[in-house]
Design brief:
The complex is a heterodimer of chains A (113) and B (109). By secondary structure, chain A is mostly beta strands. In chain A, 0% of the residues lie in helices and 45% in strands. Chain B is mainly β. Chain B is built from no helices and eleven strands. In chain B, strands 2, 4, 5, 9, 10 and 11 form a six-stranded mixed sheet that branches. A five-stranded antiparallel sheet of chain B has the order 1-3-8-7-6, with no helix packed on it. Classes of the chains: A mainly beta (113), B mainly beta (109).
């Protein structure tokens, strides 16, 4: 593993289904973030984790949940997907929370029909 | 409210210079980032400014004026590979990044 990996690369999902997007890092960064990116809008923060065992809500958390059982993994779950959750999802990490540079994974393109 | 404004699209010629502007309004300010994002790829870090002035990194420079809530990214000696979106993002007082929608830069031969 080199850096940040996300899985799947892309997914088409029926509305109402449950889906977990995976994010794994090998950089031993403390902070991790989930963003969604929609055309014409800036990246929007969904949830974040400043360190293993803690999570927090970002700007658009409704319909999403996260967990941070260890340093490396930060999965994002859509409990019951809706079409408005169609987006590109990016996981990011930083050495520490706060003003450190954030590094991004390759993204997951999710389509909810 | 909090807001980041940058032009939607710009066009420039290979070998030329282009300046991409960004204005921000945030509750507090703790620094500003510029990222590059090629189509279908992840954003990658270009620069970070927290103090007023110009930061130069090779062909790319970034400027910040905190009193004016203004930054720009200057790209010199443009190459075709510089065709990408450029994202401006500012830290607010809660240490959350507020992102602009990005400026799509088109380079013509």
């Amino acid at each position: 593993i080199a850096g940040i990996t996300q899985a799947p690369t892309s997914q088409i999902l029926a509305a109402g289904r449950r889906m977990t997007l995976r994010c794994t890092q090998d950089m031993r960064h403390n902070a991790m973030y989930w963003y969604r990116q929609d055309l014409g809008l800036g990246l929007r923060l969904i949830h974040y984790s400043n360190t293993a065992g803690t999570t927090g809500k970002g700007e658009v958390p409704d319909g999403y949940s996260v967990s941070r059982a260890n340093t490396d993994d930060f999965p994002l779950t859509l409990a019951s997907a809706v079409p408005s959750q169609t987006s590109v999802y990016f996981c990011a990490t930083s050495t520490t929370p706060g003003t450190d540079t954030q590094y991004f994974g390759p993204g997951t393109r999710l389509t909810v029909l | 409210g909090q807001n980041i404004d940058q032009p939607t699209e710009m066009t420039a010629t290979e070998g030329a210079i282009v300046q991409i502007n960004c204005t921000y309004q945030t509750s507090g300010f703790n620094g500003l980032f510029w990222y590059q994002q090629h189509a279908g790829e992840a954003p990658t870090f270009l620069s970070y400014n927290v103090l007023d002035g110009l930061e130069e990194k090779g062909r790319f420079s970034s400027f910040l004026s905190r009193s004016k809530g203004y930054s720009y990214l200057l790209l010199k000696e443009l190459q075709m590979k510089d065709s990408a979106s450029y994202l401006c993002a500012a830290w607010d007082s809660n240490y959350q990044l507020i992102w602009g929608a990005g400026t799509k830069l088109i380079i013509k031969p």
